[in-house]
Specification:
The protein has 359 residues and is of the alpha/beta class. The chain contains 13 helices and eight strands. It binds nicotinamide-adenine-dinucleotide. Nicotinamide-adenine-dinucleotide (NAD) binds next to helix 4, strand 6, helix 5 and helix 9.
Length: 359
């Protein structure tokens, strides 16, 4: 790939409010959008943060707290949340949490057009995308619809102080994956290329500081990581993803592996696979990581900071690698390097064993 000389750039209508303490601006955000009654969504573990939101926006503006968000948005949970929103007269949903909670907000919006305001507390990036996923009978159906894109996103690093170190690191590398694939996206554009490089840089700088103990929500590491997550999420929402995201979707969905960890383990190998076909993207990723090579740079970033580097350490069985390879080859998709079965199978073996990429 060379520098892009022809492209399409589609801007998206979203407000982004960023900064320590910006949660206090949620009432203003509701007002700006003409909204006056919110159902607050969260996981059971983040109930206290959702209650904090309810207090902040005031009893007259709260339609209740729905605290049943779980990973992969099971259809039953989506129905229950939609029904709670309808029965309590909500005119919007506020999702406070990671990709699972924001995903639940999107599932409500998909059928009801209820606007979503997102308050992200991980680095997964769902708040910046029109992508949704709903799981029914063990199958995750994903799609794109502008109605699910959160209208307003409030990034408050103070809310990320409780994110455990291990999830902080893997979630940050999950975000880097969006930007890395964005840099070799066939439908990419120079704006997203800039955001991707800046996003990787911010996250690669934040990870060592988080690992060294700067976990407090008021630290510059937390602010930097959330800033990077915003940029990388915007890339995910704007341009097409390739081999890495498809593999992670397969591994997460079919073998029930944890989301951020799978991204962390697979990314170095997906970059090593695509490297020869996307040299400029690799150069940019390496520069943003401040490392000599993109694939090795991501691997070292994970390993140095205590993140998993092998699929076998996060619940994958070696006996399932063959099937994973078959599934990954089932539906063709754009990728800088053509999908070759033997090379893909080797990629999965390397990821399973946690080998450091050769380049
Ligand atoms: N549609 C999209 O564009 C998109 C993008 C990224 C991820 N996703 C989806 O999001 C899900 C993964 O999201 P995730 O990685 O953010 O994890 P998550 O939302 O499942 O959160 C993991 C756990 O961490 C807890 N948690 C989150 N923030 C916390 C905080 N600040 N302090 C303490 N605990 C906190 C949550 O309550 C949860 O128990 C997957 O289902 C994935 O497919 C979707």
């Amino acid at each position: 790939m060379t520098i892009r000389t022809a492209f399409t750039y589609q801007a998206r209508a979203q407000r982004v409010v960023f900064g320590a303490g910006s949660l206090a601006r949620l009432p203003e955000e509701m007002h700006a959008l003409g909204l006056c009654r919110a159902l607050v969504l969260c996981t059971p573990a983040q109930r206290a943060q959702a209650e904090q939101v309810a207090v902040l926006i005031g009893p007259a503006q709260v339609a209740g707290v729905f605290d049943q968000a779980v990973m992969h948005v099971p259809i039953g949970t989506a129905h229950a949340a939609r029904e709670a929103a309808r029965a309590r007269g909500a005119d919007c949903a506020i999702a406070i949490g990671g990709g699972s909670t924001i995903g639940l907000g999107k599932a409500i919006a998909l059928d009801t057009d209820l606007p979503v305001l997102a308050v992200p507390t991980t680095y997964a990036g769902s708040e910046m995308t029109p992508i949704y996923g709903i799981t029914e009978d063990g199958l995750k159906r994903t799609g794109k619809d502008d109605r699910v894109l959160p209208r307003s996103v409030v990034y408050d690093p103070l809310l990320t102080g409780g994110l455990p170190l291990a999830l902080s690191v893997t979630s940050a590398i999950n975000a880097i994956a969006h930007a890395a694939e964005g840099l070799y996206a066939m439908d990419g554009n120079p704006v997203m290329d800039l955001m991707a490089q800046e996003g990787i840089r911010a996250l690669a700088q934040a990870i060592p500081a988080l690992h060294a103990g700067s976990l407090d929500g008021a630290s510059s590491a937390r602010a930097g990581a959330l800033y990077g997550a915003w940029l990388c999420g915007a890339v995910l929402g704007s341009v097409g993803m390739a081999l890495h995201h498809k593999l992670c979707h397969t591994l997460g969905g079919s073998f029930n592996l944890p989301h951020a960890e799978v991204h962390t383990v697979v990314l170095p190998h997906a970059l090593a696979y695509n490297g020869p076909a996307a040299p400029l993207a690799m150069e940019r990723i390496a520069r943003a990581l401040d490392a000599p090579h993109a694939a090795q740079g991501v691997y070292d970033l994970a390993q140095r900071h205590g993140a998993p580097v092998a699929l076998r350490d996060i619940g994958m069985r070696e006996a399932d690698l063959e099937r994973a390879c078959d599934i990954a080859l089932q539906t063709p998709y754009p990728n800088p390097r053509p999908l070759e079965r033997a090379a893909l199978r080797q990629l999965l073996q390397d990821a399973y064993e946690g080998r450091r990429p050769l380049r």
